[in-house]
Amino acid sequence: MSQRKKVAVLISGRGSNMLSLISAALDPSYPAEIALVVSNNPGAGGLERAAEFGIATAVLDHRNYKGNRDAFERDMDALLRSHGIELIALAGFMRLLTPFLVNAWQNRMINIHPALLPSFKGLHTHERALETGVRLHGATVHFVSAEMDDGPIIMQGAVPVLDSDTPDALGARVLTVEHQIYPKALALVASGVASVSGHKVVLSKEDPELASQTLLAP
């Protein structure tokens, strides 16, 4: 097997999606290694959980930069490169990124968003889905671009919206899907199967499992 890609996971909170990636990477055949977890929040619960797996952790507290996003991102870039990172996975990282960091890691940074993009970009996706009356909702893994919640889509997972749903109930089902599709999407990218062509993701293999880029959950 070719050498596994070194991945940094960026978090701001408890890191539930981070844990799904760590769990997948415990399999030696998985094409990515979670080599570093970074948070902008010193109190992020995910930091301790990552350390329990022996994964290096680091904190770059954005509050120490007094609104200087350029300095924050340049220090983040230097930190990632010092650890030999090859891919970045955003997992609840609650900071808007500037074109500097996005361009520095173009087609090497992925994100998971709790909606079926391009619908419901931004926050409060589950509330908005219920207000709009859509019958399907879900999650999307995509490459990061300079525009928020944009960028080529790698994989999506969908759940039905029930008449009895509350935002919390719907969000819990979507989170289950997130934990399923994020490790699969990272594997596609780390293995080189998924690449960007224009504004689309193309797959280099027509493996039935790999080619299934949409998960329909009950």
TrEMBL record:
The keyword Cell division does not apply. The active site is at residue 113. The record marks 149 as: Raises pKa of active site His. GO terms for molecular function: phosphoribosylglycinamide formyltransferase activity. It comes from the Bacteria. SUPFAM superfamilies: Formyltransferase. Residues 5-186 form the Formyl transferase N-terminal domain. InterPro entries: Formyl_transf_N (IPR002376), Formyl_transf_N_sf (IPR036477), GART (IPR004607), GART_AS (IPR001555). Its EC number is 2.1.2.2. CDD domains: FMT_core_GART. GO terms for biological process: 'de novo' IMP biosynthetic process. Gene3D superfamilies: Formyl transferase, N-terminal domain (3.40.50.170). Keywords: Purine biosynthesis, Transferase. (6R)-10-formyltetrahydrofolate binds at residues 69, 94-97, 111. It holds the Pfam family Formyl_trans_N. Belongs to the GART family. Catalyzes the transfer of a formyl group from 10-formyltetrahydrofolate to 5-phospho-ribosyl-glycinamide (GAR), producing 5-phospho-ribosyl-N-formylglycinamide (FGAR) and tetrahydrofolate. PANTHER family: PHOSPHORIBOSYLGLYCINAMIDE FORMYLTRANSFERASE. HAMAP family: PurN. This is Phosphoribosylglycinamide formyltransferase. It comes from Roseibium suaedae. The lineage of its organism: Bacteria, Pseudomonadati, Pseudomonadota, Alphaproteobacteria, Hyphomicrobiales. The gene is purN.
